[in-house]
Design brief:
By secondary structure, the chain is mostly helical. It has helices at residues 4-19, 23-33, 40-47, 54-58, 62-78, 84-103, 105-122.
Length: 123
């Protein structure tokens, strides 16, 4: 599980590495980084639609987003069948999991951006 202190320390370490780059490399790094960074507010807004998994698509996690969407669609469809309790259980399960992600949106995106910066620095 993500720990705020660890993610903050990781970000600080990456900032030090970037600061040590020559000016031209640092400028190129930030030019490559800017369009790839993700915004925690956008992630959280998309997470408000947590049943559809839109926030996973925002991070390029297509598999996880499709699983969320599939669970939602199947769960909603089951509400209109004799398996209504299974549908409710599926919707409650996905709600619990994604509600947790909603409250942790800031740290999730901070960690995502840290990993992105780390990959760019390694290239």
């Amino acid at each position: 599980m993500l720990n705020q202190q660890q993610v903050d320390a990781e970000e600080e370490q990456i900032r030090e590495w970037v600061a040590a780059l020559p000016d031209e490399q640092r400028k190129e790094f930030y030019q490559q980084l800017k369009p790839l960074l993700r915004d925690p507010d956008t992630y959280a807004t998309l997470n408000w639609c947590f049943l559809a998994g839109l926030h996973h698509f925002y991070l390029g996690q297509w598999g996880r987003g499709l699983v969320n969407l599939l669970i939602f669609v199947v769960g909603a469809a089951l509400l209109f069948t004799p398996l209504v309790l299974v549908g409710i259980a599926m919707l409650l399960l996905i709600t619990g999991i994604e509600l947790w992600a909603l409250f942790r949106a800031q740290i999730i995106i901070q960690h995502w951006n840290n990993q992105l910066m780390r990959r760019l620095l390694q290239r």
